[in-house]
Protein backbone atom coordinates (compact mmCIF):
# COMPACT_ATOMS: atom_id res chain seq x y z
CA UNK A 1 0.00 0.00 0.00
CA UNK A 2 1.48 3.37 -1.02
CA UNK A 3 1.21 6.53 1.08
CA UNK A 4 -1.75 7.91 -0.87
CA UNK A 5 -3.67 4.66 -0.45
CA UNK A 6 -2.77 4.56 3.25
CA UNK A 7 -4.04 8.11 3.83
CA UNK A 8 -7.25 7.43 1.93
CA UNK A 9 -7.82 4.24 3.92
CA UNK A 10 -7.15 6.01 7.22
CA UNK A 11 -9.55 8.82 6.31
CA UNK A 12 -12.25 6.30 5.49
CA UNK A 13 -11.82 4.57 8.83
CA UNK A 14 -12.00 7.84 10.72
CA UNK A 15 -15.16 8.77 8.85
CA UNK A 16 -17.04 5.73 10.12
CA UNK A 17 -15.68 5.66 13.66
CA UNK A 18 -17.46 7.64 16.40
CA UNK A 19 -15.80 10.99 17.09
CA UNK A 20 -14.09 11.43 20.44
CA UNK A 21 -13.37 14.26 22.85
CA UNK A 22 -12.77 14.46 26.57
CA UNK A 23 -13.31 16.83 29.47
CA UNK A 24 -12.48 15.06 32.75
CA UNK A 25 -14.32 13.57 34.53
CA UNK A 26 -16.44 13.18 31.38
CA UNK A 27 -15.87 11.69 27.97
CA UNK A 28 -17.75 12.75 24.85
CA UNK A 29 -18.32 10.64 21.74
CA UNK A 30 -20.14 11.45 18.51
CA UNK A 31 -21.94 8.92 16.33
CA UNK A 32 -22.60 10.19 12.79
CA UNK A 33 -25.91 9.17 11.25
CA UNK A 34 -26.86 9.76 7.59
CA UNK A 35 -26.63 13.43 6.51
CA UNK A 36 -30.06 14.90 5.94
CA UNK A 37 -31.86 12.21 7.91
CA UNK A 38 -33.31 14.81 10.28
CA UNK A 39 -32.54 13.50 13.76
CA UNK A 40 -34.92 14.68 16.47
CA UNK A 41 -35.41 12.57 19.63
CA UNK A 42 -33.90 9.41 21.11
CA UNK A 43 -34.14 6.97 24.00
CA UNK A 44 -31.68 4.33 25.27
CA UNK A 45 -32.95 0.75 25.21
CA UNK A 46 -32.36 -1.90 27.90
CA UNK A 47 -30.15 -3.92 25.52
CA UNK A 48 -27.61 -1.09 25.21
CA UNK A 49 -28.80 0.21 21.85
CA UNK A 50 -30.33 3.64 21.29
CA UNK A 51 -33.55 4.29 19.37
CA UNK A 52 -33.85 7.57 17.49
CA UNK A 53 -36.40 9.38 15.35
CA UNK A 54 -35.42 10.78 11.95
CA UNK A 55 -38.07 13.37 11.28
CA UNK A 56 -36.62 14.45 7.96
CA UNK A 57 -36.96 11.01 6.40
CA UNK A 58 -39.90 9.55 8.33
CA UNK A 59 -37.79 6.84 9.96
CA UNK A 60 -37.13 5.20 13.29
CA UNK A 61 -33.55 4.09 13.80
CA UNK A 62 -31.56 1.96 16.21
CA UNK A 63 -27.91 2.74 16.94
CA UNK A 64 -25.47 0.14 18.22
CA UNK A 65 -22.91 2.18 20.21
CA UNK A 66 -20.43 -0.72 20.18
CA UNK A 67 -19.45 -0.07 16.58
CA UNK A 68 -21.51 2.97 15.53
CA UNK A 69 -23.68 0.97 13.15
CA UNK A 70 -27.40 1.66 12.84
CA UNK A 71 -30.54 0.36 11.16
CA UNK A 72 -33.69 2.25 10.19
CA UNK A 73 -37.30 1.40 9.42
CA UNK A 74 -39.86 3.51 7.59
CA UNK A 75 -42.86 4.50 9.69
CA UNK A 76 -45.06 4.95 6.64
CA UNK A 77 -45.88 7.36 3.86
CA UNK A 78 -45.69 10.97 4.98
CA UNK A 79 -44.21 10.07 8.37
CA UNK A 80 -42.58 12.80 10.47
CA UNK A 81 -41.79 11.32 13.90
CA UNK A 82 -40.97 13.50 16.88
CA UNK A 83 -40.66 11.79 20.30
CA UNK A 84 -39.75 8.22 21.22
CA UNK A 85 -39.84 6.32 24.50
CA UNK A 86 -39.54 2.69 25.59
CA UNK A 87 -42.80 1.10 26.72
CA UNK A 88 -43.36 -1.52 29.42
CA UNK A 89 -43.34 -4.07 26.59
CA UNK A 90 -39.76 -3.15 25.68
CA UNK A 91 -40.80 -1.62 22.36
CA UNK A 92 -40.22 1.94 21.17
CA UNK A 93 -43.37 4.08 21.00
CA UNK A 94 -43.33 7.16 18.79
CA UNK A 95 -45.38 10.34 18.49
CA UNK A 96 -45.77 10.23 14.71
CA UNK A 97 -47.01 13.65 13.66
CA UNK A 98 -46.88 13.03 9.93
CA UNK A 99 -49.60 10.38 10.09
CA UNK A 100 -51.22 11.89 13.21
CA UNK A 101 -50.74 8.64 15.07
CA UNK A 102 -48.93 6.93 17.91
CA UNK A 103 -46.61 4.32 16.43
CA UNK A 104 -45.25 1.16 18.01
CA UNK A 105 -42.29 -0.63 16.44
CA UNK A 106 -41.62 -4.24 17.35
CA UNK A 107 -37.95 -4.44 18.40
CA UNK A 108 -37.68 -7.93 16.92
CA UNK A 109 -39.11 -7.77 13.41
CA UNK A 110 -39.47 -3.94 13.22
CA UNK A 111 -43.17 -4.23 12.37
CA UNK A 112 -44.92 -0.86 12.64
CA UNK A 113 -48.35 -0.58 14.29
CA UNK A 114 -50.23 2.74 14.14
CA UNK A 115 -52.84 4.04 16.57
CA UNK A 116 -54.38 6.98 14.75
CA UNK A 117 -55.96 9.97 16.47
CA UNK A 118 -59.64 10.66 15.76
CA UNK A 119 -60.26 12.66 12.57
CA UNK A 120 -61.44 15.73 14.46
CA UNK A 121 -57.92 16.05 15.87
CA UNK A 122 -56.28 15.70 12.46
CA UNK A 123 -53.72 18.48 12.99
CA UNK A 124 -52.61 17.71 16.54
CA UNK A 125 -48.88 18.23 15.78
CA UNK A 126 -47.81 15.37 18.06
CA UNK A 127 -44.72 15.99 20.16
CA UNK A 128 -43.72 13.66 23.01
CA UNK A 129 -45.08 10.80 25.12
CA UNK A 130 -44.53 8.78 28.31
CA UNK A 131 -46.07 5.79 30.08
CA UNK A 132 -47.64 6.01 33.51
CA UNK A 133 -47.32 3.27 36.11
CA UNK A 134 -50.45 1.51 34.84
CA UNK A 135 -49.03 1.21 31.33
CA UNK A 136 -51.16 3.97 29.80
CA UNK A 137 -49.39 6.09 27.20
CA UNK A 138 -49.80 9.88 27.56
CA UNK A 139 -48.83 12.27 24.77
CA UNK A 140 -48.82 15.94 23.78
CA UNK A 141 -49.84 17.76 20.62
CA UNK A 142 -48.50 21.27 20.11
CA UNK A 143 -51.66 22.44 18.33
CA UNK A 144 -53.37 22.49 21.73
CA UNK A 145 -53.96 18.89 22.75
CA UNK A 146 -52.82 16.11 25.02
CA UNK A 147 -54.15 12.58 25.25
CA UNK A 148 -53.89 9.02 26.43
CA UNK A 149 -53.77 5.62 24.76
CA UNK A 150 -54.50 2.25 26.34
CA UNK A 151 -52.11 0.01 24.37
CA UNK A 152 -53.93 -3.26 25.03
CA UNK A 153 -57.35 -2.11 23.89
CA UNK A 154 -56.28 0.65 21.54
CA UNK A 155 -58.71 3.04 23.22
CA UNK A 156 -57.61 6.65 22.78
CA UNK A 157 -58.89 9.85 24.35
CA UNK A 158 -57.76 13.32 23.30
CA UNK A 159 -58.22 16.41 25.47
CA UNK A 160 -58.08 20.10 24.60
CA UNK A 161 -55.33 21.79 26.54
CA UNK A 162 -56.04 24.80 28.73
CA UNK A 163 -54.84 28.00 27.06
CA UNK A 164 -54.79 26.34 23.65
CA UNK A 165 -51.63 25.76 21.60
CA UNK A 166 -48.32 24.81 23.12
CA UNK A 167 -48.20 21.33 24.79
CA UNK A 168 -44.69 20.00 24.20
CA UNK A 169 -42.55 18.06 26.71
CA UNK A 170 -44.03 15.49 29.08
CA UNK A 171 -42.72 13.48 32.03
CA UNK A 172 -43.74 10.90 34.62
CA UNK A 173 -42.62 11.20 38.25
CA UNK A 174 -41.54 8.44 40.67
CA UNK A 175 -44.88 9.03 42.40
CA UNK A 176 -46.64 8.20 39.15
CA UNK A 177 -47.86 11.70 38.28
CA UNK A 178 -47.86 12.99 34.69
CA UNK A 179 -46.80 16.56 33.93
CA UNK A 180 -46.43 18.36 30.63
CA UNK A 181 -45.00 21.71 29.53
CA UNK A 182 -46.60 24.22 27.18
CA UNK A 183 -44.15 26.16 25.05
CA UNK A 184 -46.61 28.70 23.64
CA UNK A 185 -48.61 28.81 26.87
CA UNK A 186 -45.56 29.22 29.12
CA UNK A 187 -46.88 26.94 31.84
CA UNK A 188 -46.58 23.41 33.18
CA UNK A 189 -49.56 21.24 34.04
CA UNK A 190 -50.34 18.16 36.09
CA UNK A 191 -52.80 15.74 34.51
CA UNK A 192 -55.49 14.14 36.65
CA UNK A 193 -55.10 10.52 35.56
CA UNK A 194 -58.69 9.68 36.44
CA UNK A 195 -60.50 12.52 34.69
CA UNK A 196 -57.84 13.63 32.21
CA UNK A 197 -58.15 17.27 33.25
CA UNK A 198 -54.99 19.39 33.40
CA UNK A 199 -54.16 21.68 36.32
CA UNK A 200 -52.06 24.63 35.21
CA UNK A 201 -49.07 25.82 37.27
CA UNK A 202 -47.44 29.09 36.25
CA UNK A 203 -43.63 29.50 36.42
CA UNK A 204 -42.39 32.63 38.20
CA UNK A 205 -40.96 34.10 34.97
CA UNK A 206 -43.58 35.57 32.62
CA UNK A 207 -43.49 34.25 29.04
CA UNK A 208 -40.80 31.75 30.02
CA UNK A 209 -41.44 29.39 27.09
CA UNK A 210 -41.63 26.15 29.09
CA UNK A 211 -40.41 23.67 26.50
CA UNK A 212 -39.56 20.33 28.08
CA UNK A 213 -39.90 18.81 31.56
CA UNK A 214 -38.27 15.98 33.52
CA UNK A 215 -38.80 14.67 37.03
CA UNK A 216 -36.03 14.09 39.56
CA UNK A 217 -36.01 11.34 42.20
CA UNK A 218 -38.05 13.53 44.56
CA UNK A 219 -40.84 14.02 42.00
CA UNK A 220 -39.84 17.65 41.50
CA UNK A 221 -40.43 18.98 37.99
CA UNK A 222 -37.46 20.47 36.14
CA UNK A 223 -38.28 22.80 33.27
CA UNK A 224 -36.21 24.06 30.35
CA UNK A 225 -37.36 27.59 29.48
CA UNK A 226 -36.77 28.46 25.85
CA UNK A 227 -37.69 32.15 25.95
CA UNK A 228 -36.07 33.08 29.26
CA UNK A 229 -32.99 30.85 29.02
CA UNK A 230 -33.65 29.58 32.53
CA UNK A 231 -33.78 26.17 34.14
CA UNK A 232 -36.45 26.03 36.81
CA UNK A 233 -37.66 23.46 39.30
CA UNK A 234 -41.14 23.18 40.76
CA UNK A 235 -41.81 21.17 43.91
CA UNK A 236 -45.47 20.09 43.93
CA UNK A 237 -45.15 19.10 47.59
CA UNK A 238 -45.01 22.72 48.74
CA UNK A 239 -45.72 24.67 45.54
CA UNK A 240 -42.27 26.27 45.50
CA UNK A 241 -40.15 27.32 42.52
CA UNK A 242 -36.44 27.93 42.05
CA UNK A 243 -34.89 29.38 38.91
CA UNK A 244 -31.38 29.74 37.49
CA UNK A 245 -30.21 31.37 34.28
CA UNK A 246 -27.93 29.29 32.08
CA UNK A 247 -24.41 30.70 31.64
CA UNK A 248 -23.49 32.91 28.71
CA UNK A 249 -25.32 35.55 26.72
CA UNK A 250 -28.92 35.03 25.68
CA UNK A 251 -29.18 31.30 26.45
CA UNK A 252 -31.94 29.28 24.78
CA UNK A 253 -32.73 26.22 26.87
CA UNK A 254 -34.35 23.52 24.74
CA UNK A 255 -34.07 20.02 26.26
CA UNK A 256 -33.86 18.91 29.90
CA UNK A 257 -33.01 15.56 31.48
CA UNK A 258 -32.36 14.58 35.11
CA UNK A 259 -29.89 11.73 35.60
CA UNK A 260 -29.76 9.02 38.27
CA UNK A 261 -27.67 11.31 40.51
CA UNK A 262 -30.25 14.11 40.24
CA UNK A 263 -27.90 16.21 38.14
CA UNK A 264 -29.76 18.24 35.54
CA UNK A 265 -28.72 18.29 31.88
CA UNK A 266 -29.93 20.85 29.37
CA UNK A 267 -29.21 21.96 25.84
CA UNK A 268 -28.48 25.58 24.95
CA UNK A 269 -28.87 26.49 21.28
CA UNK A 270 -27.16 29.87 21.73
CA UNK A 271 -24.04 28.31 23.28
CA UNK A 272 -24.10 25.35 20.86
CA UNK A 273 -23.69 23.18 23.91
CA UNK A 274 -25.00 20.64 26.34
CA UNK A 275 -25.03 22.02 29.89
CA UNK A 276 -24.88 20.12 33.19
CA UNK A 277 -26.30 21.74 36.32
CA UNK A 278 -25.59 20.53 39.85
CA UNK A 279 -28.45 21.66 42.13
CA UNK A 280 -26.34 21.03 45.23
CA UNK A 281 -23.56 23.44 44.23
CA UNK A 282 -25.59 25.54 41.77
CA UNK A 283 -22.72 25.24 39.29
CA UNK A 284 -22.80 24.58 35.54
CA UNK A 285 -20.54 22.53 33.27
CA UNK A 286 -20.68 23.44 29.60
CA UNK A 287 -19.93 20.86 26.89
CA UNK A 288 -19.69 22.73 23.60
CA UNK A 289 -20.09 20.73 20.41
CA UNK A 290 -17.04 20.33 18.20
CA UNK A 291 -19.17 21.43 15.22
CA UNK A 292 -21.33 24.55 14.79
CA UNK A 293 -25.14 24.53 14.79
CA UNK A 294 -25.49 21.27 16.75
CA UNK A 295 -29.07 22.10 17.85
CA UNK A 296 -29.51 19.25 20.33
CA UNK A 297 -33.28 18.89 20.59
CA UNK A 298 -33.63 16.13 23.13
CA UNK A 299 -31.75 14.39 25.93
CA UNK A 300 -32.17 11.04 27.65
CA UNK A 301 -29.87 8.69 29.48
CA UNK A 302 -29.06 5.81 31.76
CA UNK A 303 -26.67 5.59 34.74
CA UNK A 304 -23.35 7.12 33.74
CA UNK A 305 -24.51 8.06 30.24
CA UNK A 306 -26.13 11.15 28.74
CA UNK A 307 -27.45 10.84 25.17
CA UNK A 308 -28.57 13.57 22.79
CA UNK A 309 -29.53 14.17 19.18
CA UNK A 310 -27.61 16.82 17.25
CA UNK A 311 -30.32 17.68 14.76
CA UNK A 312 -28.14 20.26 13.02
CA UNK A 313 -25.33 17.79 12.33
CA UNK A 314 -27.32 14.53 12.23
CA UNK A 315 -25.14 13.01 14.93
CA UNK A 316 -25.90 11.28 18.19
CA UNK A 317 -23.78 12.48 21.11
CA UNK A 318 -22.83 10.53 24.22
CA UNK A 319 -21.36 12.06 27.37
CA UNK A 320 -20.07 9.43 29.79
CA UNK A 321 -19.21 10.00 33.43
CA UNK A 322 -15.80 8.41 33.95
CA UNK A 323 -15.22 9.52 37.53
CA UNK A 324 -17.20 10.92 40.42
CA UNK A 325 -18.21 14.44 39.72
From TrEMBL:
Pfam families xrefs: Vgb_lyase (PF24684)
GO process annotations (BP): antibiotic catabolic process; response to antibiotic
Highest taxon, organism lineage: Bacteria
UniProt EC number: 4.2.99.-
Cofactor: Mg(2+)
GO cellular component terms, A-Z: outer membrane-bounded periplasmic space
Keyword Lyase belongs to the record: yes
Keywords: Antibiotic resistance, Lyase, Magnesium, Metal-binding
InterPro entries linked to this entry: Vgb, Vgb_bact, WD40/YVTN_repeat-like_dom_sf
One annotated GO molecular function: carbon-oxygen lyase activity
Enzyme class: lyase
Assembly and interaction partners: Monomer.
Role according to the record: Inactivates the type B streptogramin antibiotics by linearizing the lactone ring at the ester linkage, generating a free phenylglycine carboxylate and converting the threonyl moiety into 2-amino-butenoic acid.
Annotated family: Belongs to the Vgb family.
Protein name, entry field: Virginiamycin B lyase
Species in which this protein is naturally found: Bradyrhizobium vignae
